[in-house]
Amino acid sequence: MAYPDYPDALIARILRSVKTIAMVGASPHESRPSYFAMKYLLDKGFSIIPVNPGQVGKEILGQKAYASLSDVPPPVDMVDVFRNSQAAGPIADETISNKDRLGVKVFWMQLGVINEAAAKRVEAAGLTVIMNRCPKIEYGRLSGEIGWYGVN
C-alpha cells in the first residue's frame, strides 16, 4: 500500500484495536514530539511502553523504560518507531524476531520516517505497516478533535 494514502478505515481500525504500544525512541524531554505523542496516547487510554536504552531503570511519564523490544514484556499490539528512517530497519528486524512473543500486529513509522525495505520485510512477516504518519495526529483527526487544518 502506498504512503501516505492509507484509507481512514484502516487507520481507524488499527487505533480501535490497539491497546498496548511499544514506543521506540520515546523521550523524557517535554520538548520532544515523542513526549507529546506518548502523553496524548496515555491520556486516551492506550498503554505505552517506552523503549529507549538511555532511559533504562527510569520512567517516562510514569511508564518503565526498556532498552530494546527484546526486553519488553508482552503483550504489545503495535510498535511505534520514533527514530529516523535508517534506524527503522534494525527496529523492523527486532520487531519481526519478537512479533510472536509480544503479539505485535502493527508496525507504525512516525511522520518523516520512511523505510520501504523495512516495510516490505515487516509486511512479509504478516504485520500491518503504516509509514510517515503519527498515531496521535491520526487519533485526533479521526475522533474529530483536530482536522487537517488545526484544532476543531
Q: Briefly note the structural class of the backbone.
A: alpha/beta
Cα-atom radius of gyration? 14 Å
Largest sheet: 5 strands, parallel
The count of β-strands is: 9
> What distance lies between the first and last C-alpha atoms, to the nearest angstrom?
29 Å
Q: Please, how many helices?
A: 5
Average pLDDT figure = 93
**Largest beta sheet: strand ordering:** 2-1-5-6-7
- Helix percent band: 25-40%
Task: Give the overall silhouette.
Answer: globular
- Low-confidence stretches are none
The ordered string of helix (H) and strand (E) elements is HEHEEEEHEHEHEE
Strand fraction: 15-25%
Structure description:
This protein has 152 residues and is an alpha/beta fold. It contains five helices and nine strands, in the order H-E-H-E-E-E-E-H-E-H-E-H-E-E. The strands form three sheets. A five-stranded parallel β-sheet has the order 2-1-5-6-7, sandwiched between helices. Helix 1 packs across helix 5 and helix 3 packs parallel to helix 4 (116-124).
